[in-house]
Amino acid sequence: MARNLVKGKIAAQPGQHLIAIVCTSLDNKPKSAFALRFVVNALYCDGKKVHRPDMGASRMQANHNDSRKKEQVVVLATGGTIAGAAESATRADYTSGRVTVDAMIGGVPQIQEIAHVRGEQLANVGSQDITFAIMIALANRINDLLADKDVHGVAVTHGTDTMEETAYFLNLTVANRKPVVMTGAMRPATAISADGPLNLYNAVAVAADPQAAECGVLVVMNDRIHGAHSLTKTNTTSVETFISPINGLIGTVNYGRSEYFRRPFRRHTFNSEFSIEGVSELPRVDIVYACADMPPDLIDASVDRGARGIVIAGDGNGNMNAATLKRAARAAAGGVLIVRSSRVPTGKVGRNVEIDDDRLGFIASDELNPAKARILLMLALTKKRSLQEIQRLFYEY
Ligand SMILES: NC(=O)CC[C@H](N)C(=O)O
User: Fold this and answer.
1) Domains in the chain: how many in total?
2) Where does ligand 1 bind, in terms of residues with CB under 6 Å?
3) Hey, which of 127, 163, 239, 240 would you mutate to test ligand 1's pocket, going by the most ligand atoms within 8 Å of its Cβ?
4) pLDDT per position in the chain (397 positions), as tens?
5) Of 240, 271, 302, which residue sits at a domain end?
6) 237 alpha carbon to ligand 1 midpoint, in Å?
7) What are phi and psi of 376, to 5 degrees?
8) Are 73 and 112 within 8 A, CB to CB?
9) Are 94 and 23 part of one and the same domain?
């Protein structure tokens, strides 16, 4: 493939350092504006290479699937509403994980026009029943598949309830630059206006798109492309359920045509320091949800049950009442890792704001919600690490 180096595109924004992007054109002789595609290879900030490609530096061209050769994409199915079935097209009650991967792919024959697609059934459960054993099997299978030079990308179908947890787990444990794209549905396969088929079509299109490489694990739902670090589920039934409240969308995809706005800033996949090679189980970490006048002995219950870490879904900026704070401090002094996250869906939890983390030996979750903070802490605890090192992980991933 011809490589045409374009140097010195400037994308400075008010308040930012000047950033120059070195781009490689994938097409030496563009026939139209749409045929031009760029992959950002490296970013330079004040003359120094920035290893984590930035957010918002440039808006890339929309892709153009028609002019591209068909790539091989493997769909790994785990269940969820996308594979759900109801008694009728208008019933709200249904059962997740009824439709097989072959039936899902067969239901969208147009998908074979954008990629060579084949499926594998890894599980078939509602995502409330996803286990770490399934997540580990999924990460291992993705790592194996992506090591095959003929596989361009992987799409994973999954229930939406815990999709953000599996996405974040894979973001830390898949060690490859190729696209990994998760999708699901809010309406079962049998419903009027089921959203699963178009979501699957769009997810496969993104998994076949060279621009989706090095973005970490992406989630494609309802025409939006989210990053695993940022996205969260916000509505119990609506098709517009996922938002990325902290860092915003990675891009959009409309009938298979994607457009990218930014790249994830945090470390992931190919530059993650985590590995699940040889790991079959993870240490226990519990989540304790804070509320007014909460009973403090929930902390003791977790400690007594052998939790190696506790994530507090704190009020506001990771707060908890004085009685709980006392028990959490006692647990921390006994070697249990205490991470302060928040039950509030947006905003960071910073260190030493109303609680003296330095004195009590606590960790602040920074941008991670409780469910994702738990996953990071579980992976962090697979190896001996100091408090400072674990706090660093919360700033970097
Ligand atoms: N829309 C969905 O996928 C949520 C339903 C189901 N509980 C699941 O997570 O699999």
Assistant:
1) 3
2) 80-81, 96, 126-128, 159-161, 184, 186
3) 127
4) 333 333 333 333 333 333 333 333 444 433 333 223 333 333 333 344 433 333 333 344 455 455 567 899 999 999 999 998 888 898 888 888 889 999 999 999 999 999 999 999 999 999 999 999 999 999 999 999 999 999 999 999 999 999 999 999 999 999 999 999 999 999 999 999 999 999 999 999 999 999 999 999 999 999 999 999 999 999 999 999 999 998 899 999 999 999 999 999 999 999 999 999 999 999 999 999 999 999 999 999 999 999 999 999 999 999 999 999 999 999 999 999 999 999 999 999 999 999 999 999 999 999 999 999 999 999 999 999 999 999 999 999 9
5) 271
6) 9
7) -60, -40
8) no
9) no
> How long a stretch of residues is the chain?
397
Rounded to whole angstroms, how far apart are CA atoms 263 and 228? 11
Using the mean position of ligand 1's atoms as its centre, give its distance from the Cα of residue 240 in Å: 14
Q: Any catalytic annotation for residue 183?
A: no
* Nearest CA among 239, 248, 194 for reference residue 221: 239
Domain extent, residue 202, equals: 65-271
Q: Residues annotated in the binding site for substrate, as ranges?
A: 127, 160-161
Residue 276 lies in a domain: no
Please state the atom number of ligand 1 nearest to the C-alpha of residue 186.
1
| Residue nearest atom 1 of ligand 1, based on CA coordinates | 186
Alpha carbon of residue 93 to chain centroid = 28
* Short-list 282, 329, 322, CA closest to 303: 329
Would residue 279 count as lying in a domain? no
- The active-site residue out of 78, 81, 157, 173 is 81
356 near 326, Cβ under 8 Å? no
This model of the complex carries an ipTM of 0.96
pTM (2 d.p.): 0.84
